[in-house]
Amino acid sequence: MMHPLLHTPYLGNGLLQQRDAIIATLKQRFKTYGYKQIQTAALEPYDLYVGNPKIGNTDDMIKVVDTSGKVLVLRPDVTIPITQQIATTQMNGGEDTRLFYIMDVFSYRFEDDQKQRTQAGVEYFNNRTPAGDAEVIALAIHILKDCGFPEFKLEIGHAGFFRALLAQANLSNEQIAPLQTYIQTKNIAEMVDYLATLPIQETVKQAMQYIPFLYGEPNEVMEKIKRHGLNGILQAELTYLVNVYNSIQAYGLTDHIVFNLGLINDMNYYSDVIFQGFVNQVGKPVVMGGRYDSLGDYFGARIPAIGFAFDVDLLLHAAKQHGLLSTLIEEEPIAIYYDVAAQKEALAIALALRERGYAVVTYSTNGDQHTASKETVHIICEADSYNLYYGKQAISFQHISELIQLLQERGS
Fold first, then answer.
1. CATH of the domain at 383
2. Count: domains in the chain
3. What own/partner pairs with CB < 8 Å and gap ≥ 24 does 89-95 have?
4. Is residue 64 domain-resident?
5. For binding L-histidine, which residues are annotated in this chain's numbering (predicted)?
6. Which of 327, 342, 370 is the last residue before a domain boundary?
7. Local structure of 84: helix, strand or coil
8. Which element (helix H / strand E) includes 394?
9. Whole-number Cα distances in Å, 4 to 58, 103, 289
């Protein structure tokens, strides 16, 4: 019996086909960048997550107990189990491994009632380079363009910015948590009041107060940093981020990029470049990612990597908001209507079309060869004639080669 929290939502009115079409678009684009698909188990040992400071809150995980009494969790994250798998075969970094996945994750922290989301993402295990990070970001942008979104932005930040300032502040985890929330929500007033209560240097306080304002076109953000004297504090992180941005320029995709140095990701394993993508009219990021060079250390292997995950359900919602679902839905099948005398020829035509990748449905008309077709494209086969119809327009053909040519000319 399925857990009551994990029922699959009903996707009617063609939404399931449209969702599959979005996934097909993602998979095809992943493959063009050289990624191969991977799968991990839906149920994982609870011990994989307990005691790992980079994992997050285990209270959000959905736990089950097997027949032997062992505690398992439904997969709350994809990056962690994939990293564990790679760690068993690749003990040191340097190997170029590109993997993609389409998998469900489960958590009590999801805001809807499903507690289940589908993620589609990549994990690129490679040594840290601006060019490698830029390629992954370019892939994320490429996918959003493939989906047809007219307006979207990809925010790029660096997990090291906030950490570099914290290193100078010497704060406890309890003191850091409110500060992180204020920065994420851009709650300047309360952040200023809160910083006034903390025993840290005035220059560090001013730097933290200004982080939420470091958002916008990259060159403008860099000027703001220099103007406020922050470049000295964050020089290493800034230099790397600029190098990544310069590499993205080679792809001609910088129109979609903004810097957000107040970007703080909830996943604690990110170490360097982090990013998230927003589609116009959708308030949540449809894709989130970043570099996580030290996650493999937990599994005894040094395997630096970068990756991202698209929220497929949110991507479907965004496509619906922008009226893109009609362009994402799979084409209707070609219907073949035939009378008894033409059955052999009609079914041979259907087989030939299917072998060429066409979707085909067949109907015996029992003598009523003019049965109305709901399909725009259909074929009527009679004893001595074969006609291809586009709506009410009929085009006669004699051989399958003629039919294929007609379909190709019409783009069907």
1. 3.40.50.800
2. 3
3. 90/125, 90/301, 90/303, 91/300, 91/301, 91/302, 91/303, 92/301, 92/302, 92/303, 93/125, 93/126, 93/127, 93/296, 93/302, 93/303, 93/304, 94/127, 95/125, 95/126
4. yes
5. 77-79, 119, 123, 269-270
6. 327
7. helix
8. strand 393-396
9. 20, 20, 30
Same domain for 264 and 307? no
CATH value at residue 46: 3.30.930.10
The Cα–Cα gap between 158 and 155 comes to 10
Does 38 score more than 80 pLDDT?
Answer: yes
Structure tokens at 220: 């403008």
Verify that 164 and 248 share a domain, yes or no.
yes
Would you call 236 helix, strand, or coil by DSSP?
helix
pLDDT given at position 167:
79
Residue 306 sits in the same domain as residue 341: no
pLDDT band at 36; cut points 50, 70, 90: very high
Q: Which domain holds residue 378?
A: 334-409
The verdict on 5 and 63 lying in the same domain is yes
Q: What would the pLDDT profile of 178-200 be if each residue is shown by its tens digit?
A: 888 888 788 888 988 988 898 88
Q: Among 209, 136, 135, 129, which Cα is nearest to 169's?
A: 209
Distance CA 263, CA 258 (A): 11
* Residue 8, pLDDT above cutoff 50: no
- Give the residue numbers of the binding site for L-histidine: 77-79, 119, 123, 269-270
Q: Which residues on neighbouring strands pair with residue 72, listed in sequence order?
A: 45, 64
Region 90-118 average pLDDT: 81
Same domain, residue pair 192 and 100: no
Q: Which amino acid is at 381?
A: C
Please tell me whether residue 13 adopts helix, strand or coil conformation: coil
- Residue 41 placed within a domain: yes
Structure tokens of 291?
A: 């570099």
Q: Walk across the sheet containing 43-45 and list its strands.
A: 43-45, 71-74, 63-65
Residue 170 domain-assigned (yes or no): yes
Look at residue 281 and give its three-state secondary structure: coil
pTM for the model: 0.78
Tell me if 283 is assigned to some domain. no
- pLDDT above 60 (res 11): no
Summarize the annotated binding site as residue ranges.
77-79, 119, 123, 269-270
Mean pLDDT of 31-52: 89
Same domain, 341 and 309: no
Mean pLDDT of 211-238: 79
